[in-house]
Amino acid sequence: MRVLVVEDEQLLADAVATGLRREAMAVDVVYDGAAALERVGVNDYDVVVLDRDLPLVHGDDVCRRIVELGMPTRVLMLTASGDVSDRVEGLELGADDYLPKPFAFTELTARVRALGRRTTVALPPVLERAGIKLDPNRREVFREGKEVQLAPKEFAVLEVLMRSEGTVVSAEQLLEKAWDENTDPFTNVVRVTVMTLRRKLGEPPVIVTVPGSGYRI
């Protein structure tokens, strides 16, 4: 899952991004509304965590623009105000969910994951395919009932492949969904991660390489 965090309190923004990355999400961070509009115009995000009171361009205007563009991106709006009227107004702008500050990080993570599931065809919370069971919320993976310990990027790649339900996922798509914008697109990080993931999942291999196209399970 790829997430954009838009928050002008830099310490909070960086803390949220760090926490979400530990949950195997690819996260970009910006600190004002103008930068947010630039990013959503270039990258495809599953979820935007959007502070409402932003400098340069207000969060309301960022939300409106996302809606106008018809993106599948879901918006989780943050605000320091706990007034019901503010929450209603944010939702009427097109936000998909609303979370007042201060918030518990576990709740933020749960809401981001729930919104992420709504950007694609509805799938069950626990994914199962080819003897593999993946639980995004618990960050657990089992193969034939045996738990498999994965690093965050390995987990992210496996989740993308599982959600594709047998269709081929290109290396570019994996890079887009499992890494942030600071990753060099010309590195072999996808190939190395897939190789490590195959090894950890054991025999027989379940990740198939489709020459010239990508990978599938």
From TrEMBL:
Alphabetically list the UniProt keywords.
DNA-binding, Phosphoprotein
Q: Which residues bind DNA?
A: 124-217
Does the keyword section mention Transmembrane? no
- 4-aspartylphosphate modified-residue sites: 51
Q: Residues in domain Response regulatory?
A: 2-116
Q: Which residues form the OmpR/PhoB-type domain?
A: 124-217
Provide the protein name.
Response regulator transcription factor
Its lineage opens with: Bacteria, Bacillati, Actinomycetota, Actinomycetes, Kitasatosporales
